[in-house]
Specification:
Shape: globular
Radius of gyration: 16 Å
Strand content: 25-35%
Number of helices: 4
Structural class: alpha+beta
CATH topology: 3-methyladenine DNA Glycosylase, Chain A
Oligomer: single chain
CATH class: Alpha Beta
CATH architecture: Roll
Number of strands: 9
CATH superfamily: Methylpurine-DNA glycosylase (MPG)
DNA sequence: CACGGGATCGTCT
DNA sequence: GACGATCCCGTGT
């Protein structure tokens, strides 16, 4: 079996560095014996209390955001537009509500299952390009929010399979869909693998 | 290819 | 009661 990312990885304080480090790691799910895996190719960092784009801006604690205040390694999944389940990794130490949104992945195992879940007949980038579509492909829902990915029996986790992503392959730019976030709009907190056909938007 | 709108509902005001 | 860290499909060029 492959090694899961551990606490030392997830509690790193610099969420931007952590978000770029997640590129090349492998997101896995297993439910009812059904296994899927995919390499992370696009992420966005949300810098907790200081970040106007974050749900936890100004340390806002609500029933929804409460899980973001856990130590790193928990899953934060929320419903967007009433339809899409967006998957985040909580990062940093306890009470620091940083999170990384996974925006796109490259399928590895369980591709047929992903296609079935997405109601697609061909393998195309739109199978997993975009935070809503990748959750559908992996079977991730809001029911998984608050689960500890460091727990051996969690339905979702992240592995290190030693895929090497060279620094020059890592691109960065503004995040998507947070036009309301004022001076945080233009910060380069989105990261993706250069020339990957699996990212949600090229740039 | 660029846009424009509809879907759909939990969450917060 | 308004809106969103999105996606898909339709229309027009």
């Amino acid at each position: 079996m492959y090694k899961r990312l551990g606490l030392d990885f997830f509690i790193q304080q610099n969420v931007a560095v952590l978000a770029s480090s997640l590129l090349g790691k492998v997101l896995c799910t297993k439910q009812k014996g059904l296994f899927t895996s995919a390499m992370i190719v696009e992420t966005e960092a949300y810098q907790g209390p200081e970040d106007k784009g974050s749900h936890a801006f100004r340390n806002r604690r609500t029933q929804r955001t409460e899980t973001m205040f856990n130590r790193g390694g928990f899953a934060y999944v929320y419903l967007c537009y009433g339809i899409h389940h967006l998957f985040n990794v909580v990062t940093g130490p306890e009470d620091v509500p940083h999170a990384v949104l996974i925006r796109a992945i490259q399928p590895i195992e369980g591709v047929e299952l992903m296609m079935k879940r997405r109601k697609m007949l061909k393998i195309l980038p739109k199978l997993t390009a975009g935070p809503g579509t990748l959750s559908q492909a992996l079977g991730i829902t809001t029911a998984m929010t608050g689960t500890d990915m460091l727990s051996p029996d969690s339905p979702v986790w992240i592995e290190d399979r030693q895929y090497q992503i060279e620094p020059e392959q890592i691109m960065s730019g503004p995040r998507i869909g947070i036009d309301y976030a004022a001076d945080w709009i233009d910060r380069p907190l989105r990261f993706w693998i250069k020339d990957s056909i699996w990212v949600s938007r090229q740039r």
